[in-house]
Amino acid sequence: MTIPFETKIDFKSPRWNRDSWARIQGNLDPEKERFTYCTGQVLGVKPNEKVKELCSFETFLCTRLVPTEDGNIRRLNKEVIFYTDSRSGQIIDTWTNPWTGEEVRVVQVANDPFNYTISDFLILAPEDLPNGEKAPPKKIPLIFPWKEIGPDTLMLTTDMHLYYPNALQPDKWPRESSGPMVQVSELFRYFVSRKQLEDPNLTRVDYQGSWQRITPWLPWMLMGQEPGHVSYAGSMFGSDTLDIVPRHILDYAEKNYPHMLSAPTEDYGPSISSLEYYAREQTPAPVK
Fold first, then answer.
1. Is 47 helix (H, G, I), strand (E, B) or coil?
2. What are the phi and psi torsion angles at 127 (to 5°)?
3. Three-state DSSP class for 262?
4. Reported pTM
5. Across residues 7-33, what is the average pLDDT?
6. What is the Cα Rg of the chain in Å?
7. Is 131's pLDDT higher than 80?
8. What does residue 131 show for φ and ψ, rounded to 5 degrees?
């Protein structure tokens, strides 16, 4: 049964924002999957030198939306990031660090699952108080900064800036860890059709957009706490099928990660970050 949704555009309505965001990310018909494909470059940023293109990446997400008992929407999701050679586009198993000359083993990303709830409100992480305690979490209405671009195009911006304890602590992971805390920003831009948003027959909305992630050095790069960071810069698209993903990327997934080619059908967990998966599945590199 299709999850009910609002189509009358109202930028100040939390319910309309919720339903529009859900129709962009997935399909409000729980029987149908929705797929996101993103491709781009991984850039290395160090102080006092020009930015380096380190490699490229290929990402796809398999998403299903289901109703929750409290009337909200649960986003069930699997996601992969495969690292590729910037020139050939082929998936790489090893990578040569341009600063150290060391050849390292590449660790691909396969987050299964990465679920969250889409509701009329956002729950903000508690802030640190001067006395060292945590302030209560803030609950704010879900209102995004939409922009109107031309007669039929709207741009949705959804950014988040995070700071949280590192699953890879330096004492155990001296070569993989960027430090005790992780500073990450995720920057999304979605370009969508006003006509599609207003169409009550469309349980999903097409989009084109961009994704940028600013994050510490990837743990498999073995940069430790060296000053600098990584930036992902990618183009992003929504689709009803995985045909949007290049054939050689799908071939690799079918061979190595076949369980990642479809969205979850039930809400299982836990949903954890790629750093937490790394901590569970990998072992610390020997210290030189």
1. coil
2. -90, 155
3. coil
4. 0.94
5. 98
6. 20
7. no
8. -85, 5
